[in-house]
Amino acid sequence: MRADAGQANAEQKGVARLLWVLILVLSVHELRAQTAGQPTESAPIAEQHRKVIVSIPHRKLALVENGKVKKVYPVAVGAKHTPTPAGDFAVKTRLVDPTYYHPGKVIAAGANNPLGTRWIGLSTKGYGIHGTNVEDSIGQAASHGCIRMHRTDLEELFAQVEVGDQVEIRAEADAEVAGIFGDVPSAENTTDSATAVAVTVSQ
């Protein structure tokens, strides 16, 4: 009887051990199933790269995201005697309903404000992308060096760019610029707004 009891006891311990192993395996399997598909903290997050490219000869601006052109807008660039600076810049400030400051003149936000409803300031002092109170100047070499846009275009662009975004202003049509904007318009199709458009105090 003692031998039978000992054998039964050993069998019970073996079954219990087997049950514990089975429970452990099932628990690990369930944990893996729950966490499968969840990103780990160390998983890299895709970073969105956004930049603005302005072509002075085309008088156009493109918003580019992750190497793809999202939209192209017509703009006004600097007049011959006040050219737009070429180079690589960044968005430094974003202002809604900006106040216009000029030596001896301050114009509050409103219909007469030369900056329009938005100001995207660049990392070179005094220059930016903004609206205008002279809509006919868009497409011309008309500004004091800044980039002017139609109101609706500017507000759309403003909502999509952030401080730190890259801004490239190109004075020549290289391969990238030509790929985005096409051929440079001929001289007959573009005019210097110094004679074509009445220049106001607007940048």
What does this structure look like?
With 203 residues, the protein is an alpha/beta fold. It folds into two domains: 1-37; 50-196, L,D-transpeptidase catalytic domain-like, CATH 2.40.440.10. Helices cover 26% and strands 27% of the residues. It contains four helices and twelve strands. The chain has helices spanning 2-35, 151-158, 175-181, 193-196; strands spanning 50-55, 60-65, 68-74, 77-78, 87-96, 100-102, 105-107, 118-122, 128-130, 141-143, 147-148, 166-170. An eight-stranded mixed beta sheet has the order 3-2-1-12-5-8-9-11, sandwiched between helices. A hairpin with a 2-residue loop joins strand 2 (60-65) and strand 3 (68-74). It is elongated. Residues 193-202 have low confidence and may be disordered.
What's the structural blueprint in terms of helices and strands?
Layout: H1 2-35, E1 50-55, E2 60-65, E3 68-74, E4 77-78, E5 87-96, E6 100-102, E7 105-107, E8 118-122, E9 128-130, E10 141-143, E11 147-148, H2 151-158, E12 166-170, H3 175-181, H4 193-196
Parallel strand pairs: 1-12, 4-10, 9-11
Antiparallel strand pairs: 1-2, 2-3, 5-8, 5-12, 6-7, 8-9
List keywords for this structure.
eight-stranded mixed sheet; disordered C terminus; two-stranded parallel sheet; 26% helix; 2 domains; alpha/beta; L,D-transpeptidase catalytic domain-like
Output the CATH topology of the largest domain.
Answer: L,D-transpeptidase catalytic domain-like
Percent helix range: 25-40%
Question: Helix/strand-derived class?
Answer: alpha/beta
Tertiary shape: elongated
Quote the distance from N terminus to C terminus.
107 Å
Strand proportion = 25-35%
| Sequence of strands across the biggest β-sheet | 3-2-1-12-5-8-9-11
Estimate the mean pLDDT confidence: 83
Q: For this structure, what is the CATH homologous superfamily of the largest domain?
A: L,D-transpeptidase catalytic domain-like
Shape-level CATH architecture of the largest domain: Beta Barrel
Indicate the low-confidence ranges by residue numbers: 193-202
Radius of gyration: 32 Å
At the first level of CATH, the class of the largest domain is: Mainly Beta
Main sheet makeup: 8 strands, mixed
Can you tell me the number of structural domains? Answer: 2
Helix count equals 4
From the structure provided, what is the oligomeric state, counting identical versus distinct chains? single chain
- What's the count of strands? 12
